[in-house]
């Protein structure tokens, strides 16, 4: 299929101006009708493609995982990730189309792709494939992965109506730890971020410190493995400081800091000469880490709720997304915070849609397409991209 498509891309790029005009005319015609979007996600380690229609139906998806090739290094190796995207993306696209029983040329109306943030070489693979596919179809649109995390809840939310804006979004992943207010499509206020490591990084580094083997397959990796260990441990057995509580100024900030937490666990192990070959010790340390990370999340979310209240923003929900939001213990704590303290629902996409996936990219395609936010074929990747400057 790709051999057939590449020459088409070259022809189109020469007639780019005419095409862009054509794109907008067709967008206006199609936006009130039902349409299908194919989403491509290659920002980091997994190669993912999803197909969604504008009536919030997930039509098909496929993912090629890379856990096994990265585990020996204890983290993502960018070059290996890129080569794997290059090798597997065409077959992942075909598999998603087969699962959906759809034909690329006949049934897909829009192609969506992660533009950033992410690993530059990996983003490039997804972008060139998606731009090429879009060039032989009629449309393309490209957007931030962060926005996809913020919007997936509108696809998966159980009500028949779309989840209304504004809502508070906690994006907790390997690349990000963000608190956002989602006011509308393409309109977000970032209230806080991490000043050092992301929460996902802290989970991954602590899992490595404790020598916890990665969970394999969908929903796997080091963070998910640490969660399994924490389930068997006692979070109160050991005590480590909750980040940013000591310094009065830091305490009032909506930002996070996770690098100290991982170091606290390391120092604790060294100070008390804990035996890391003892499984019970590992279970308790995993539970201690997870508990402290969760309390830190809640501390800053409370400040965000207060900020919204002071601004008169009537939130409809708390949305949690990103890989770490698939952690069940964190979810239930967030649920108590939203329901009991703030009288709003917690909305989380199902765990497999919290980690990077093609469905959320396709859904963001639906939302942006409806809002008329269509990009040009010449658009490039943005490896470092803030959601505020979309
Ligand atoms: O959103 P995501 O798939 O992509 C990146 O931004 O990289 O998030 C991946 C991160 C990794 O750090 C992974 O270890 C962590 O999410 N993660 C978890 C869990 N599942 C994935 N962390 C804690 N508990 C989990 N169940």
TrEMBL record:
Database matches in Pfam families: TsaD
Give GO BP annotations, semicolon-separated. mitochondrial tRNA threonylcarbamoyladenosine modification
Catalysed reaction(s) here are: L-threonylcarbamoyladenylate + adenosine(37) in tRNA = N(6)-L-threonylcarbamoyladenosine(37) in tRNA + AMP + H(+)
What does the UniProt keyword field contain? Acyltransferase, Metal-binding, Transferase, tRNA processing
Q: What residue stretches are annotated with the Gcp-like domain?
A: 57-363
Which interval of the chain is the signal sequence?
none
Q: What Enzyme Commission number(s) appear in the record?
A: 2.3.1.234
Keyword field contains Metal-binding: yes
Superkingdom: Eukaryota
Annotated Gene Ontology cellular components are: mitochondrion
Record SUPFAM superfamilies:
Actin-like ATPase domain
Please list the GO terms describing molecular function: metal ion binding; tRNA N(6)-L-threonylcarbamoyladenine synthase activity
Q: What is this protein called?
A: N(6)-L-threonylcarbamoyladenine synthase
